[in-house]
């Protein structure tokens, strides 16, 4: 065969292969862009669905709340009182004897719970502890709201409180030792959100030995019941945090279901602040 023809054929083949490679490359790039755009849309949709506390999420729940509050007080002897308040509970369907789950936990060494009780704050339903299981610093149970409630029932508010000892490490050295292998290496107290809620408020009254902590306490948001930090949500809630005269408060509008909102701190060193 004429060498010129061979060369022409080889050139055409190379050109054809180049076109094919370029076509595949462009199709792959288009596919990658489409997949990235689809992933972005799915992510935005998921975030929107999770954050839609007063839309579909509320309607899908058996009840929703105006507020959830957690108030914690502890002293330099290690005595602790926690009050978890469910404020403005409204049912989305007809329910007889609604049961609401509660949970309190502490990872500190030697934590013990001595008292668990519940009572109504206002509204038509009486509140009592229907079931409780305490192991060390972990308490789980159910609150019974006795009677009938439905969409037309006035809102009900109630409180569950825990009393005990040694829920928290009181000095830096103990905390560093006890939490060295944990994901979160200092103290915290959080409140998990499991139903649609308009506002969450966490307040901690610290003992005198902790009033001059450096650094002071700060807000934190975890994926509920874990010590995995939710970075974006922690950043979002910072404007709702305050620390003054031994009291730290975090107030969050439209907290997201499946997250735990709280306050974290490293206790002072031994001998600092009188501890």
Summarize the structure.
Helix content is 25%, strand content 43%. The protein is of the alpha+beta class. It is globular.
What is the count of β-strands? 13
Q: Which range does the strand content fall in? A: 35-45%
N/C terminus separation: 99 Å
Q: What Rg do the Cα atoms give?
A: 28 Å
- Helix fraction, binned, reads 10-25%
**Low-pLDDT regions:** 39-55
Shape: globular
Main beta sheet: 7 strands, mixed
Strand order of the largest sheet: 4-7-2-1-9-12-11
Tell me the series of helices and strands, N- to C-terminal. HHEEEEEEEHEEEHEEE
Count helical runs.
4
Mean residue pLDDT? 86
Structural class: alpha+beta
Describe the structure.
There is one protein chain. With 275 residues, the chain is an alpha+beta fold. The protein is built from 4 helices and 13 strands. The strands form 3 sheets. A 7-stranded mixed sheet has the order 4-7-2-1-9-12-11, with no helix packed on it. Strand 11 (241-244) and strand 12 (247-253) form a beta hairpin. The chain is globular. Mean pLDDT is 86; it is low at 39-55.
């Amino acid at each position: 065969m004429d060498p010129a023809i061979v060369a022409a054929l080889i050139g055409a083949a190379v050109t054809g292969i180049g076109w094919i490679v370029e076509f595949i490359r462009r199709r792959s790039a288009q596919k990658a862009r489409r997949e990235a755009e689809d992933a972005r849309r799915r992510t935005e949709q998921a975030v929107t669905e999770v954050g839609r506390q007063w839309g579909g999420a509320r309607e899908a729940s058996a009840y929703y709340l105006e507020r959830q509050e957690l108030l914690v007080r502890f002293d330099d002897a290690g005595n602790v009182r926690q009050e978890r308040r469910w404020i403005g509970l409204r049912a989305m369907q007809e329910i007889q004897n609604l049961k609401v789950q509660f949970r309190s936990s502490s990872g500190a060494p030697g934590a013990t719970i001595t008292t668990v009780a519940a009572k109504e704050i206002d509204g038509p339903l009486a509140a009592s502890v229907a079931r409780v299981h305490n192991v060390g610093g972990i308490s789980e149970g159910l609150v019974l709201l006795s009677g009938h409630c439905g969409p037309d029932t006035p809102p009900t508010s109630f409180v569950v409180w825990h009393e005990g000892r040694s829920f928290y490490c009181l000095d830096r050295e103990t905390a560093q030792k006890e939490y060295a292998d944990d994901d979160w290496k200092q103290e915290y107290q959080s409140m998990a959100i499991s139903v649609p809620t308009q506002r969450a408020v966490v307040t901690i009254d610290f003992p005198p030995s902790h009033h001059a902590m450096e650094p002071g306490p700060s807000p934190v948001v975890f994926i509920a019941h874990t010590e995995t930090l939710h970075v974006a949500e922690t950043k979002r809630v910072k404007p709702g945090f305050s620390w003054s005269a031994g009291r730290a408060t975090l107030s969050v509008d439209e907290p997201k279901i499946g997250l735990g909102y709280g306050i974290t701190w490293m206790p002072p060193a031994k001998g600092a602040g009188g501890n």
